[in-house]
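Operator note (shift B, R.M.): manual run for Alpha/beta fold hydrolase requested after the automated queue skipped it. Running by hand, logging everything below so the morning shift can see what happened. Input copied straight from the record, untouched. If output looks odd, do not overwrite the archive copy; leave it for review.
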Amino acid sequence: MHWLEEGPDDAPAVVLIHGLGGDAQFWGVEQAALARHFRVLAVDLRGSGLSPGTVEAFSIEDLARDIESMLDEAGISSTHVIGFSMGGVVAQALAVASPQRIDRLVLAATFAVVNPQARLFLQAIGSVYRDGLSARQLYELVLPWLFSVAFLDDSRSAPYLAYPDEQGEEQSRDDWLSLLAALLAFDGRARLSAIRAHTLIISGDEDCLAPLAGAEELAHGIHGSVLKIVAGGHLMNVESPDEFIGQIERFLSLHRQPALA
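Run finished. Output pasted below as returned.
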């Protein structure tokens, strides 16, 4: 498993888990901010970024086990975990499977199970992508679901709405579809009560892919969790970056011990 690491080696660890179609570089802004106080590891999930995919099918639980192996390789026994969208689903599976390794948990723009509306959309997207849709066309179809109406209507948002002309090495079609299949097969609702980590849930107030109802279900199921609502759509970290990272920093700072004099 490939990851990008930043911050002091002797600082508390934070693992960042991206969503479907993303990779470790999704976290560029957040990783730089958190690295002032933490050892931050942004992972490439299986079949994403520089982490190779597999021919055989896999589950969300398999992705969580990949991260456990990465923690072993990095020599990390305990860590905070921040998961975004599908990364939040992987983070839930990790928190259930290895409660002793997770200190604080942040679940952003995510859910315990894909809701029926988003499921129909993602199944349709997967079907047309399997039949030959290009990566650019896929991006253009998903784009309206990623941001709020106000953000889409703002001329200053144009750089975020265009498919990058210098797109690097693309994720393979098979890898993307395998990750989608794992996401759609996951239902963690019955296991939410098994999550013991102190948990912060962040939801965008206009998120269409992971609506507030899903965040409320997480908050209801995870004992003692805190729900915060941030302005924006699914990518509220892009629309409201200061508010998003501020919520995370405040939550993690509750744990951080002051340096010895």
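Quick read of the result: Residues 257-261 have pLDDT under 50 and may be disordered. Residues 60-74 form the longest helix (15 residues).
Leaving this for review. - R.M.
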